[in-house]
Amino acid sequence: MPIIIPSDLPAYASLKQEKIFVMDSERAYRQDIRPIEIAILNLMPTKETTETQLLRLLGNSSLQVNVTFIKTDTYASTHTPHEHMDRFYKNLAEVRDMKFDGMIVTGAPVETIRFEDVKYWQELKSIMDFAQKNVTSTVYICWSAQAALYHKFGIGKRVLDKKLFGIFPAYATAKNDVLLKGLDDVFYIPNSRHTAVDEAAVRKHPDIAVLAESDEAGVLIAKTNDNRSFFFTGHSEYDRFTLQNEYLRDLAKGLTIEPPVNYFSDSSMSKVDMKWKSTANLLFNNWLNYYVYQVTPYQL
């Protein structure tokens, strides 16, 4: 089934070339199908890259998905043209009266800043509160997972001694949870972060269930017991060369950075074997199917 996005969104052509079934809203309107409504709050500086990564995963399901991109008003992106943001994104005021089956909130490169000092913190809290009341299930990724745990439960974060950077093996700690259905005993998830949540507080909180962990990367997937919020501390949505691009970017800035672990498959650091592609597809497909489609009301 298709993912419904504007035909002039840059990701449209890329996804179509990859044989992902995309459809514009005009064609979708003529079909007698109620699509799954998904909102994406995109906080990443590279908006178009993140759009493509997430749409690729959402478009690889058997469901017809209609996507609404959301932006913050209190901070304007400096890496994406204003024309793109104005054309394809809505603010909270424009969606406040809407209901969504699911929402995805991306990470953001502000993890070493106190939550309260992030320019859009108050607005983000309002969006998270909106999601709790108007969205069936929400996935928070990386920094936004930390932000949601802090806002909802007062669980803090800590700065790591060095950046957690690479592809890390993980295993299920809740083997019967359908989010992990179909995953191997050991699966891989990219991580790129300078901070970590207070994992002891996450594990002992009565309203949170830890679903997957890594010996190196700690808690990687958790959820609230009501299935309304999922916390992905890694970046399963990353594509093949995302970590390479981050590594080269930091080197160009003169930053002290080690190569991402378990990532490059040759000594020249030019070849990447993508170990996490099937994991990413299963995680998002299972979330869409079991925690959105099968439980969301037909009339939003």
Q: Regarding CATH, which class? A: Alpha Beta
Give the N-terminus to C-terminus distance in angstroms. Answer: 20 Å
What is the radius of gyration computed over CA atoms, rounded to a whole number of angstroms?
A: 18 Å
Find the CATH topology.
Rossmann fold
Low-confidence stretches: none
Under CATH, the homologous superfamily reads: Class I glutamine amidotransferase (GATase) domain
Proportion of residues in extended strands: 25-35%
Relative helix content: 25-40%
Order of helices and strands: EHEHEHEHEHEHEHEEHEEEHH
The 3D shape can be described as globular
Overall tally of structural domains: 1
Largest sheet features: 12 strands, mixed
What is the number of helical segments per DSSP (H or I, 4+ residues)?
10
- Structural class computed from helices and strand pairing: alpha/beta
Based on the coordinates given, report the CATH architecture.
3-Layer(aba) Sandwich
Mean pLDDT: 92
Number of strands: 12
Quick gist of this model?
The chain is an alpha/beta fold and 300 residues long. It has helices at 10-17, 25-29, 47-58, 82-88, 92-95, 121-134, 143-153, 199-204, 242-252, 277-293; strands at residues 3-4, 22-23, 36-41, 65-70, 89-90, 100-105, 135-141, 157-172, 187-197, 208-214, 218-224, 229-232.
